[in-house]
Amino acid sequence: MTVSPKFPAAPADEFRDGMITIVPMIIAALPIGLIFGALSAQKGLSPLEVFLMSAGVFAGGAQFVALEIWTHPAPWLTLTVSALLVNLRHVLMSASLAPKVARGFRPWQRALGFFVLTDEIWALAEQRAATRVLTPAWYAGMVIPFYLNWVIAATAGAITGTVLGDTTRFGLDFAFPALFIALIMSFWKGPRTGAVLAASALAATGTYLTLGGAWYVIAGALAGVLVAYVTATETDETGAPGQ
C-alpha cells in the first residue's frame, strides 16, 4: 500500500522532529566513536588528527578500516582505495535517496546532505520519506547533532584512549553490529527481505574468507541488490505482494 506523503510542517518544527528522530542513533553511536578514538590513540594518532579525520571523512566504517591498516608512514594509496571500496555502498544509498530530495532541496543542500550521508541517516530518511515529504530542515535536524556527536566522541576517545585501555572488555565493540541489526530489522518486510539479507550475508562472508580486504562490502551489496531486483521483478509479473 502506498502512503501519501504529508505536507511538511514549519521549518522549526521539522528541525525539532529531526533532532528527536536521531536521538537513539546518537546514543548508539557514542560508544562507537569513543572506541574509534581510543584505538586511534593506541595507533599513535593525536587528538587533533582524530578530530580532523572524523570531521573531514565522517564515515565510521571507512575510518575503522583505515585504522586497521594504519602504519607510520601512512600508506596513503592503500588507505584511499580501502576507504573507497568500503564507501561504495553510498552510491547505492544516494541513488535510492536522490528522488526523495529532488524537490525542496537546493543543489548545495543535496551536495552537503550526501556528504554527511551515513547508514543511519539513510535508513531514517527512507523511513521518513515513506510517510512524509523530506525537507532540508528535518534533514539538518538529524545530521547536525549526529555529526557533532561523532566528532566529539571520537576526539574524546582519543584524549582518554590511554585511560580506557582495551575497550572490548566493556563490551562496547558490540555497539556497532547491534546498531546495524536494529537498522536492518526496521526495514523487515517478510520473506523477501530475508532473502536479500541472506544473499548479502553469504556473498559477504564468502568473499571475506576467500579474498579478504574490503571486497566483501561490495560483494554483499551487489548480491543484495541483485536478489532485491529479482524478487521485485517476480512480484511485478505475478501481482503478488512478495512479502
UniProtKB/TrEMBL annotation:
GO biological process, one term: L-valine transmembrane transport
Signal peptide positions (record): none
Membrane topology according to the record: Multi-pass membrane protein
Pfam families: AzlC
Listed InterPro entries: Brnchd-chn_aa_trnsp_permease
Protein name: AzlC family ABC transporter permease
Membrane-traversing stretches: 20-39, 51-70, 76-95, 137-158, 170-188, 208-230
Alphabetically ordered keywords of this record: Cell membrane, Membrane, Transmembrane, Transmembrane helix, Transport
Family membership noted in the UniProt record: Belongs to the AzlC family.
Subcellular location: Cell membrane
GO CC list: plasma membrane
